[in-house]
């Protein structure tokens, strides 16, 4: 065992009971991707609008109107897009399932040969291979599931399209509202600076949290997300400033 590792740091138990309970529950459905995408996009697009309008030296009212419109319209659009994407994946899964059921009914021996070759590629051979094929194909449900996962690469977990859409919208709205908060106080002269600091914290926080589900260190993941978001905002600010000089706003 690596001297730097300990069973105290292991992610889950490996006793027979713990393993049985975990496998019975099945793979965990994770909606982190939806939250991260919604949060980053919400913060980036809203702060880009704030920076762009501020770069053009337009009024606070314009910032709030455009920012609020972005929160609702773009947030809904992104949530609807994510919903449609997840639903399309589920529809594709159902199409492939019906296709495999039809193939098993019409050409069972051909489907058994597919199972045989799949497990042969995994190192099974001889009696062990034939026994594996027999076990897989004696249950139609198991047979179809194996074909979907091994032949078509279908996911083992089924995400909810509704939850994906709602989580995306919530993350977009919450994170995207942060750059607008300082502008709600009309007397705040350095609102853009405060918005920049607050939005920077949002970018870094999203990246840091994301690191819990990746191999990157939390500070590196945070800095990466921070750099992406602030670069987008910086470009928007420059565009606003250039357009101001060109069109004479």
From TrEMBL:
The keyword Cell membrane does not apply. Pfam families: VIT1. It is found in: Endomembrane system. GO terms for cellular component: endomembrane system. Keywords: Membrane, Transmembrane, Transmembrane helix. GO terms for biological process: intracellular manganese ion homeostasis. GO terms for molecular function: manganese ion transmembrane transporter activity. It comes from the Bacteria. InterPro entries: Ccc1_fam. The keyword Transmembrane helix applies. The chain crosses the membrane at residues 35-58, 166-185, 191-209, 221-243. It is a multi-pass membrane protein. This is VIT1/CCC1 transporter family protein. It comes from Hyphococcus flavus.
């Amino acid at each position: 065992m690596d001297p730097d590792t300990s069973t105290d740091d292991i992610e889950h138990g490996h006793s027979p009971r713990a393993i049985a309970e975990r496998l019975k529950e099945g793979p965990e459905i994770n909606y982190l991707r939806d939250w991260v995408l919604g949060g980053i996009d919400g913060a980036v697009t809203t702060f880009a609008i704030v920076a762009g309008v501020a770069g053009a030296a337009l009024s606070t009212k314009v910032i709030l109107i455009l920012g609020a419109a972005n929160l609702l319209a773009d947030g809904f659009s992104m949530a609807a897009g994510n919903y449609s994407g997840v639903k399309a994946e589920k529809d594709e899964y159902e199409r492939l399932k019906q296709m495999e059921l039809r193939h098993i009914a019409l050409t069972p021996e051909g489907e058994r040969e597919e199972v045989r070759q799949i497990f042969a590629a995994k190192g099974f051979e001889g009696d062990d291979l034939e026994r594996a094929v027999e076990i897989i194909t004696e249950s139609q449900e198991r047979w179809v599931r194996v074909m979907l996962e091994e032949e078509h690469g279908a996911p083992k977990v089924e995400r909810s399209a509704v939850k994906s859409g709602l989580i995306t919208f919530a993350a977009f709205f919450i994170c995207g509202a942060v750059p607008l908060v300082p502008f709600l106080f009309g007397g705040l002269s350095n609102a853009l600076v405060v918005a920049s600091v607050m939005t920077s914290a949002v970018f870094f926080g999203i990246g840091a949290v994301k690191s819990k589900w990746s191999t990157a260190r939390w500070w590196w993941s945070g800095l990466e997300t921070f750099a992406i978001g602030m670069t987008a905002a910086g470009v928007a600010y420059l565009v606003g400033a250039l357009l101001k000089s060109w069109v004479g706003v």
